[in-house]
């Protein structure tokens, strides 16, 4: 027995020594040997008979392979200038003398191809394409895919060359293996690309990997990587779009009849408000029965200055400001019931009924949901053999890559899968195995410090048991490289040796513990062990008696007081007591005593939690472990649904964890955190002793609880042996029928979802500047979960529950109820959970250039301000393994029209119901308005869906109610911009509209007439000819002129919205044109430009608006062109911009800061991106937008005759002129000099412009073509004005209308006006002596500007035509911080009632301010 024990012990020591020494050679001369000891096999050519192509790159690159020098789509700036070479491998070579085709250039376009000896026809036996790829450098962005080029290949290879199949790995953001094939549509004669759905992910290491594509004659395919199948399917089913189009499509010519009624319900016209209905009664009133607790300390503050804090030695009062000690919780408050002024708590007013509204009744005119008729698809065809692809003439690589060193080798093209397998076995596998050996030899594990201590034991072991040592160490090395499963399969003797070593060590440890326990038992007195259990039993009995008494007490107040008395004796709250795991009497009251969540949150106070967490951390961790262990036991019980006692205990465990977890994430008073220790460090599980990570187990268990039979979903059917049923709760996305959940199921879901939100709330305890860089491990565990069924069921359940609407809850028929419907709370929590799961992206590990800049830094702010054409809602985040957020991935894959109908109709319903409720017209009497039926959550959900699903965006753009959605969103912007509490909603809507404006189709639809009837009268504009674009510009003007600090981040989005729509603008009204030019007057003024760096961006956006109109839409916008001509001095002023003059103007405005009556003030603003509190941001001085008195609208750009003279008081206006007077409210003028620095000086935030800064943007402004067009138009407009006045003078007593009416032709061209009756001296014959009143030439000018005659006088603009390209919405780190702050602040606010989940915790993501 001793010999066996010695053997096992030494074997275990050998295994440990092997780990410590990092697999280095054990011989004494090992240090002297070179690291690279692997003998590389020599390259030998390999032949493949019958191959259409077999390339091993034995000879020179050319002439076999031809480098392309073409350009991408004939663009000279995108030439294929990347270099190629045939050379041996430099990094981690596996075969000596082996060469490959190597990409040599970085950040270049590469293209190279080779022709086949004869065209290859896949129609016979399909095709097999196989080749090797080796990444000698880490690939961050680049492709390694091959193209099989169609026959005949006539031109030089480029991206425009027709191909048959594209296959291979690609990494730029998302890593995937492309498989695209092009198929001929026999009806249209055009080729269509068909992309593989859910392509596999390629490996990313530096080894050589083998990629194989097989297309079989039965229309199936298979993709293999390194000989292992990674994807297979059918050419007919697994591609987007499918190869065969649908037989029927919606009739594009079918339009919904004008009299079609879509409203299912209308307000009851016969309903009247009851006489006793008091709408003014408050919802909450003070509780007059409440009594201030005796130990309430009114004179004590909640927070005090830290008495232990000391001023840092390097603190400089002049630079850092006056030092103040940090605030800490008042220790006296922890010992009392409360501190500060005591006020009576609020209680629900029994007389409260709220606003009355008539109930809804069925609409007798309702015709049902309209849908276009279905017609036969004219492009329909059916091809049952898509494997019969076009003949292949060549193969090529056409790539863009940021890294060099991509190597291709051993390319096979043919129709033999067997030949490909032989190549893999005889060519690739020896190379791959050799590379593994070389990598191990080059990168041994570093030796540890304890090597010297174990080296003697290891040497002794090898002397006495050399053969067994070799088995153990060899097996361990194999595990390191090949994995445990493969190592056991290939080396069973080594596996047995390891098991014996580990078992022997465990046996020895057990015996040693037994000996120690025996010795300690002999040394301990016999009387003491008997006393402790008796004391425990006494406490347990007292606790049980108190618990029973409390449950029997019908008065809830008395029950709570009694349980509070028991809580005072609970040992976990005593930091002086260290409790063992076996002290069940101390742990069990947590899940036995509470009767509901109120009990848990009232009995377990923040002071108690912090005291045990900070002073008895071991007890705190044990408490969480014991509660979770009890939860697992109860969750696994088969009779959970039949046992109310077990259900109650399980819910109490959920409630206790909900109460404790926020304090795990909270930063302690000493600045530390116990999150990693409690949640993410392995430790023995209570009861079993097995190691586990609580955070992962807790998250997994919480998800399972959401689908536990009998608890949160209906009980499993008879014979169904499962406790967790992953299923979708409600009908909608992914489900056609509802589960039919009971009230208890819904209520339990609320509590479990509340725990899920708490587990993921770490983000709230991270400062804003670090929230992008620090991962949320709980969210990562859920969002990056490999269980796709769980993710899909949870995602669909959350979406459908969020949008589920019940007109009446369970026995809660009236909106004046004081009972909260559990379904409403469930919908709210479901939507919140959906938001944080869709928003989350795991940040990359910080390593050099790959690090994500902290929000708020200069780098992040620069990224926020760039507004480059980067994809929307995309951060450079994700894990290095290429994992993705599956919730976002599944949302991106939604494509069914019925699902889009469900999402759109329900989001619109939530918005319109709130809108009707605000207007007190169509509010339902059977539904209490709750927080989730609000525009804030609906707009956030809409934004997330649009950003994550491009097909949904196209659906919304093309939907017949897209303009209705646009109008409703603008209503909420106008309704909420004056309320700081709705700033988040206004900003969300601005992002939605900006994102939609990136689609030209949506911009085009905005030119349709705008129906203002849905708006309240206060929002309507007196102009019946308004389009949606007009109302959009007027809304932007209104918000910009409001000068609200919290709207500063919205301004860029509004200007970008106008800029993206500009190329499609038509028939802009005079009112809109005047406001747009007034806005330009302010933003283009020199003082405003230099007041902040980002003001230049606003200027550029407006300049691009006018540039697009001048080049593309001049004749379509006569009013706007006329306003631009009148204000053309603004453009010439900008072209002659002088920095010194601008600074002088700014200095003068600062001196006149207080004289606001004499200046216009736009003012300086803070950074428009990072504004999580938005309460202290400087005010933009757009507030000075007001009307000017007098003739302020007239511009000096035109002569007096061109402007026309203002009629004398009392003079009637011309009856034909339908345009508003020049000085009416339609020509609101922004007051002239912006005092940007005036406000900036007051806030201490000043930008110092330089000449270099000016030259970085001024020369690039397209001012020359704009000024040229305006100058040309001004000459002709002056002539028209003179002719109109001359005709009026010649008419004598005739009215202005008759004078204009006599002119022939509608274009009012100067030549026609000249030929009327004017004499050579410019006076009218026969009427020269009769004076005439001044007339308005505007109607004639507008007619001429909208005619072809205007186009003929424009200068040649062909060389300056701007490309129509939208500015996309970039998702900067600062914007991510704001969005996360918005989401979590909504969650925090909703958690304040009824329990205050996060109340009094030290949240750091945003600032919590009391409203009392």
Mean pLDDT over all positions? 75
Number of helices: 47
Share of residues in strands: 5-15%
User: Pairing-aware structural class of the strands and helices?
Assistant: alpha+beta
Which spans have pLDDT < 50 for at least 5 consecutive residues?
1-36, 447-467, 519-571, 807-819, 847-882, 921-933, 1156-1244, 1293-1332
> How many β-strand runs?
29
Assign an overall shape. Answer: globular
Cα-based radius of gyration, to the nearest Å: 39 Å
Provide the helix percentage.
Answer: 40-55%
Largest sheet: 9 strands, antiparallel
Distance between the termini: 77 Å
Question: What would you note in describing this structure?
Answer:
The chain has 1412 residues and is an alpha+beta fold. Helices cover 41% and strands 11% of the residues. A hairpin with a 1-residue loop joins strand 11 and strand 12 (174-184). Helix 18 packs across helix 20 (777-783) and helix 22 runs antiparallel to helix 47. Residues 1-36, 447-467, 519-571, 807-819, 847-882, 921-933, 1156-1244 and 1293-1332 have low confidence and may be disordered.
Write the layout of secondary structure elements.
Blueprint lengths: L1 H20 L31 E3 L10 E2 L3 E2 L2 E5 L4 E5 L10 E5 L4 E13 L6 E9 L5 E3 L2 E5 L12 E10 L1 E11 L6 E6 L11 E8 L4 E6 L2 E7 L4 E2 L7 E3 L14 E3 L16 E3 L16 E3 L11 H4 L6 E3 L1 H5 L10 E3 L11 E3 L11 E3 L15 E10 L4 E9 L2 H26 L8 H14 L1 H17 L1 H7 L1 H32 L4 H25 L3 H12 L16 H4 L1 H4 L4 H7 L2 H10 L1 H19 L8 H22 L9 H5 L2 E3 L6 E3 H12 L37 H17 L17 H7 L4 H16 L18 H18 L18 H9 L19 H7 L4 H23 L15 H14 L1 H9 L3 H15 L6 H15 L2 H6 L22 H13 L7 H14 L8 H14 L2 H4 L5 H18 L5 H9 L1 H8 L3 H13 L48 H4 L32 H8 L7 H5 L7 H29 L4 H6 L8 H5 L23 H8 L2 H5 L20 H18 L22
Antiparallel strand pairs: 1-27, 2-7, 3-4, 5-6, 6-27, 7-26, 8-14, 8-27, 9-11, 10-11, 10-26, 11-12, 12-13, 13-17, 14-15, 15-16, 18-25, 19-24, 20-23, 21-22, 28-29
């Amino acid at each position: 027995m001793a010999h066996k024990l010695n053997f096992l012990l030494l074997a275990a020591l050998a295994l440990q020594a092997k780990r410590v020494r990092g697999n280095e050679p054990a011989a004494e001369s090992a240090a002297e040997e070179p690291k690279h000891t692997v003998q590389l096999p020599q390259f030998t050519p390999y032949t493949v008979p019958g191959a259409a192509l077999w390339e091993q790159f034995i000879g020179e690159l050319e002439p076999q392979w031809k480098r392309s020098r073409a350009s991408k789509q004939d663009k000279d700036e995108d030439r294929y200038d990347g270099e190629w070479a045939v050379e041996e491998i430099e990094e981690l070579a596996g075969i000596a003398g082996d060469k490959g085709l190597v990409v040599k250039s970085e950040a270049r376009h590469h293209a190279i191809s080779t022709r086949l000896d004869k065209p290859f026809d896949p129609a016979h036996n399909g095709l097999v394409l196989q080749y090797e790829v080796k990444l000698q450098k880490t690939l961050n962005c680049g492709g390694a895919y091959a193209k099989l080029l169609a026959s005949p290949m006539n031109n030089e290879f480029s991206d425009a060359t027709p191909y048959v199949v594209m296959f291979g790995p690609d990494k730029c953001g998302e890593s995937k293996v492309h498989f695209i094939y092009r198929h001929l549509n026999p009806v249209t004669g055009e080729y269509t690309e068909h992309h593989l759905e859910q392509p596999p992910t390629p490996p990313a290491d530096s080894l050589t990997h083998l990629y194989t594509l097989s297309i079989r004659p039965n229309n199936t395919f298979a993709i293999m990587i390194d000989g292992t199948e990674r994807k297979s399917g059918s050419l007919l089913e697994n591609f987007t779009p499918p190869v065969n189009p649908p037989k029927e499509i919606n009739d594009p010519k079918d339009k919904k009849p004008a009299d079609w009624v879509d409203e299912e319900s209308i307000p009851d016209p016969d309903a009247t408000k009851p006489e006793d209905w008091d709408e003014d009664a408050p919802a909450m009133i003070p509780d007059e029965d409440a009594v201030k607790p005796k130990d309430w300390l009114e004179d004590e503050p909640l927070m005090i200055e830290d008495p232990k804090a000391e001023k840092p030695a390097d603190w400089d009062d002049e630079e850092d400001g006056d030092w103040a000690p940090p605030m800490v919780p008042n220790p006296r408050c922890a010992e009392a019931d409360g501190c500060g002024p005591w006020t009576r708590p609020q209680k629900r007013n029994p007389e409260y009924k709220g606003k009355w509204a008539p109930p809804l009744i069925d609409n007798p005119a309702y015709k049902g949901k309209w849908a276009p008729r279905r017609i036969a698809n004219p492009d329909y065809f059916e091809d049952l053999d898509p494997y019969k692809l076009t003949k292949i003439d060549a193969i090529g690589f056409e790539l863009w890559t940021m890294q060099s060193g991509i190597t291709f080798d051993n390319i096979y093209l043919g129709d033999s899968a067997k030949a490909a397998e032989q190549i893999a076995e005889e060519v690739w596998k020896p190379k791959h195995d050799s590379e593994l050996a070389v990598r191990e030899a080059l990168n041994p594990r570093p030796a540890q410090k304890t090597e010297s201590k174990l080296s003697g034991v290891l040497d002794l072991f090898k002397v006495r048991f050399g053969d067994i040592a070799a088995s153990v160490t060899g097996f361990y090395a194999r595990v390191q490289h090949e994995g445990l499963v493969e190592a056991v399969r290939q080396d069973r003797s080594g596996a047995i040796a390891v098991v014996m070593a580990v078992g022997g060590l465990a046996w020895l440890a057990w015996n040693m513990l037994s000996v120690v326990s025996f010795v300690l038992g002999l040394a301990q007195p016999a009387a003491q062990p008997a006393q402790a259990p008796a004391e425990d039993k006494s406490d347990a009995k007292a606790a049980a008696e108190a618990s029973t008494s409390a449950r029997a007490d019908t008065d809830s107040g008395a029950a709570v007081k009694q349980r509070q008395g028991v809580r005072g004796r609970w040992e976990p709250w005593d930091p002086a007591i260290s409790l063992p795991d076996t002290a069940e009497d101390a742990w069990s009251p947590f899940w036995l005593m509470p009767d509901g969540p109120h009990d848990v949150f009232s009995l377990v106070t923040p002071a108690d939690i912090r005291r045990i967490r900070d002073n008895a951390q071991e007890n705190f961790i044990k408490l969480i472990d014991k509660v979770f262990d009890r939860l697992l036991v109860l969750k696994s019980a088969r009779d959970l649904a039949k046992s109310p006692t077990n259900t109650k205990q399980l819910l109490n465990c959920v409630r206790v964890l909900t109460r404790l977890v926020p304090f795990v994430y909270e930063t302690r008073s000493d600045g530390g955190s116990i999150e990693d220790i409690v949640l993410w460090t392995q430790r023995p599980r209570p009861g079993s002793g097995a190691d586990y990570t609580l955070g992962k187990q807790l998250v997994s268990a919480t998800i399972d609880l959401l689908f536990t039979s009998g608890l949160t979903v209906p009980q499993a059917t008879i014979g169904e042996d499962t406790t967790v049923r992953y299923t979708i709760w409600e009908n909608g996305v992914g489900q056609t029928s509802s589960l039919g959940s009971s009230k208890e199921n819904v209520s339990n879901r609320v509590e479990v979802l509340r725990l899920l939100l708490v587990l993921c709330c770490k983000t709230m305890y991270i400062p804003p500047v670090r929230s992008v860089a620090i991962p949320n491990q709980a969210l990562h565990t859920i969002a990056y979960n490999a269980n796709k069924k769980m993710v899909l069921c949870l995602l669909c359940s959350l979406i459908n529950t969020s949008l589920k609407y019940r007109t009446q809850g369970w026995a809660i028929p009236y909106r004046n109820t004081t009972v909260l419907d559990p379904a409403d709370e469930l919908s709210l929590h479901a939507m919140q959970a959906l938001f944080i799961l869709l928003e989350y992206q795991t940040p990359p590990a910080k390593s050099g250039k790959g690090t994500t800049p902290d929000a708020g830094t200069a780098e992040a702010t620069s990224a926020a301000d760039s507004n480059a054409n980067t994809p929307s809602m995309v951060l450079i985040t994700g894990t290095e393994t290429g994992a993705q957020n599956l919730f976002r991935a599944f949302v991106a894959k939604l494509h069914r029209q019925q699902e889009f109908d469900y999402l759109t109709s329900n989001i619109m319903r939530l918005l319109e119901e709130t809108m009707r409720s605000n207007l007190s017209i169509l509010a339902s009497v059977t539904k209490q308005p709750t927080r989730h039926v609000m525009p804030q959550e609906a707009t956030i959900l809409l934004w997330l869906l649009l950003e994550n699903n491009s097909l949904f965006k196209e659906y919304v753009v093309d939907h017949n109610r897209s303009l209705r959605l646009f109008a409703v969103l603008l209503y909420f912007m106008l309704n909420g911009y004056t309320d700081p509490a709705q700033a988040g909603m206004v900003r969300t809507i601005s992002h939605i509209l900006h994102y939609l404006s990136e689609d030209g189709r949506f911009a085009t639809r905005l030119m349709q007439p705008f129906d203002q009837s849905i708006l309240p009268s206060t929002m309507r504009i007196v102009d019946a000819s308004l389009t949606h674009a007009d109302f959009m510009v007027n809304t932007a003007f209104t918000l910009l002129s409001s000068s609200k600090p919290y709207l500063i981040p919205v301004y860029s989005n509004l200007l970008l919205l106008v800029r993206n729509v500009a190329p499609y603008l038509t028939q802009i009204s005079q009112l809109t044109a005047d406001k747009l030019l007034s806005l330009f007057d302010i933003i283009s003024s020199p003082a405003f430009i230099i007041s902040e760096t980002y003001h230049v961006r606003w200027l550029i956006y407006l300049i691009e608006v006018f540039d697009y109109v001048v080049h593309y839409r001049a004749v379509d916008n006569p009013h706007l062109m006329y306003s631009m001509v009148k204000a053309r001095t603004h453009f010439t002023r900008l072209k002659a911009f002088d920095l010194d003059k601008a600074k002088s103007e700014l200095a003068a405005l600062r001196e006149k800061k207080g004289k606001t009556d004499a200046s216009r003030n736009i003012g300086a603003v803070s950074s428009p991106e990072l504004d999580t509190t938005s309460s202290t941001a400087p005010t933009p001085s757009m507030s000075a937008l007001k009307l000017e008195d007098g003739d302020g609208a007239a511009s000096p750009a035109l002569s007096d005759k061109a402007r026309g003279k203002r009629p004398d008081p009392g003079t009637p206006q011309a009856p034909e002129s339908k345009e508003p007077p020049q000085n009416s409210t339609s020509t609101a003028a922004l007051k002239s000099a912006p005092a940007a620095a005036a406000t900036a000086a007051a806030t201490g935030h000043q930008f110092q412009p330089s000449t270099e800064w000016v030259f970085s943007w001024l020369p690039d402004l397209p001012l020359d073509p704009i000024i040229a067009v305006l100058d040309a138009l001004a000459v002709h407009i002056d002539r028209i004005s003179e002719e109109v006045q001359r005709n009026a003078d010649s008419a004598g007593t005739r009215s202005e209308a008759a004078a204009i009416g006599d002119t022939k032709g509608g274009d009012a061209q100067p030549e026609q006006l000249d030929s009327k009756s004017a004499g050579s001296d410019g006076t009218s014959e026969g009427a020269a002596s009769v004076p005439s009143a001044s007339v308005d030439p505007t109607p004639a000018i507008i007619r001429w500007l909208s005619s072809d005659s205007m186009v003929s006088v424009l200068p040649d603009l062909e060389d300056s035509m701007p490309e129509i390209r939208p500015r996309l919405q970039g998702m900067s780190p600062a914007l991510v911080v704001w969005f996360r702050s918005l989401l979590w602040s909504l969650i925090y606010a909703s958690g304040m009632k009824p329990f205050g989940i996060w109340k009094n915790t030290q949240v750091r993501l945003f600032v919590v301010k009391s409203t009392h």
